[in-house]
Amino acid sequence: MLFKKTLHIAALLVVAYLMNSFVLRSGIMKDAPPRNDAIERRVDSLLALMTLEEKIGQMTLFTSDWEMTGPTLRATYKEDIKKGRVGAIFNAHTAAYTKELQRIAVEETRLGIPLLFGYDVIHGYKTIFPIPLGESASWDLQAIEKSARIAGVEAAASGLHWTFAPMVDIARDPRWGRMAEGAGEDTYLGSAIAKARVQGFQGNGFDNADAVLACAKHFAAYGAAQAGRDYHTVDISEQVLREVYLPPFKAAVDAGAWTFMTSFNEWNGIPASAHEQLLKDILKWEWGFPGFVVTDYTSINEMVQHGYAADFKHAGELSVNAGVDMDMQGAVYYNHLEQLIREGKVKESRVDDAVRRILRMKFMLGLFENPYKFSDTEREKRLILSQEHLAAARDVARKSIVLLRNENQLLPLSKNLKNIAVIGPLADSKVDMLGNWSAAGDAKDCVTLLEGVRAKWPNAQIKYARGSDVMQMNKVDFANAYAAAKKADVIILAVGEAGWMSGEAASRSDIGLPGVQTELVKYLLTTGKPVVMVLMNGRPLVLGDLAEKVPAIVETWFAGTQGGHAIADVLAGDYNPSGKLPVTFPRNVGQIPLHYNMKNTGRPMNPNDKYTSKYLDVPNTPQWPFGFGLSYTTFEYSDLKTDRSSFDRNESVNISVMLKNTGNYDGEETAQLYVRDLIGSVTRPVRELKGFQKVFLKKGESKTVQFRLSADDLRFYNHDLRFRAEPGDFDIWVGGDSDAKLGTRVTMVK
Ligand code: NOJ
Fold it and tell me: How confident is the model at residue 22, as a pLDDT?
């Protein structure tokens, strides 16, 4: 009997093992896209022909160098391509140049395996859209998808197959410069945007020559760098990792993202590029990710500095065994992987798995049929910076602009203005309009704010002065600015950060206006003229008392190629601003981290009780909360109703609210749904975004806005890391920002 039982258990274990290895090998899990057997057969037969050196070549990605006129490849890399020792190149683009390199791979190597060309096409290729944080302020998923689509179309015409985007890192610390590249602080919004961007880049599938592979990055928790310092250590619980930082990555996998990039940071003591739990257990096993994982730039090598690997060879062993398929620029696989296999430290089957994942993409893209299908000079000429793309860039830029303050309805400005002063170090700066990571974007194609204002008010006298530099402390131009401003009907004042001050390696400890810009603003306020402060920046800024002193404040991020026109459209009221902040603006740096979905604590802030959770010198509240943004009109929320007050875990609650445009302009509002789980087996945030909708209303018009909240939407990771909703009471609010007041309560019964 005992023998029979043991036999039975052993048989079950064997079956489980076989299933497991099949699933791992094929990358097929419940969420994985359907397997294409024809491609799998071709991958297998090619793999069978490859030498170990050629296999490792497919796992190697090198960059091109940059010269004044464009990228060039080091002579040694060209030799490597010929030998089949490099499978992918990044930073090489234009149809002509990618064709030239592809020809070497296809015609001069033993097996003729085409190269894959990658590039950081983050917010546009040549037609540059607002920085991703800016686009996220539109909360407009269609617009965001369209922006990524156009980026993909232009990049693909220039020979690119692969973009290193979207960056889906949640970022709660505005000191971290890379916040500019993502969707802000919120997991729900960030997941929706991750999906839109992946779909946009990958378009209608790879049968078309205009879809590029998306790459969800940086896996994982890069945005949780301690103190907002780039590349810094991340130390967060698995609960927070799973609940806050991972969902946008999961959304990217579900949307079909075919590649992932590891992050530079460690999580809980293990660098991400060697993190088995992240790469093998979660990404490839739990989520069934069938694509390939590339490292970030030399991040395998950096494991030596992390103190995790003794030398590069050791780092390579750790990385490949943890599930990294492609080495970006580090040449660690290139130099050491063959030896590691010979020594038995890495199994060749792991290398085969990696190569399969990479070749799968090349077959899927149709590169074996036509290796040059992406490199198309005719398409490149016709599509890049086309009128249609420029119009879309202007539209998305307008949608991204957030009106933060508008005292006495200073905005919109009259079209009949006669004298306008346009001032500020960013008012006529083309290069800063591009923002960071602007791919092949060319400053000369950008419309500055000054140019936008000139085009909008062709009959006005427009005086321009720079006033100051962005960074330097020199005030010599203050006098010119004052003179230009003195006779103006209005001062349009562009201040903020230079484009390079956000993005990678651009952390700041002081997130105020740099240089003497605050003084410039104050000086111009003394003219007594109305001031419209146009902010350009890649992160929330701390504005101090300017936030209350300047009558009109417009957040424009870095608005891209058509930025100047888009901002002028908003200032003149040709577009009624509808953007909402995707991130909290703090009052000062000392409040950081400050995000709307914090925990309540056991001593929530009470102004009359010293011993509660607060500061002596600043309120707990932000300058502007997540989700906030004004319009030239006003919106009123009323009549919040639910179709039931209690529900069980198989049901949902329908929520409706009346939204009315009560002002004098037509306009668009983003209605936001927030929830608080009052009592949990682990404590829950004071609010969580669970839905949003953009609603256009003519002046005086009302509409009922509906949301559906299901028990699934209320799940969270409990102490045992189980993802469950727990019965109990839930407060619900609907409104125009995360401070929404109109609320009700529902109960989930068992
Ligand atoms: C380093 C950055 O962290 C990453 O986001 C980027 O894609 C690579 N460099 C390639 O440029």
Answer: 40
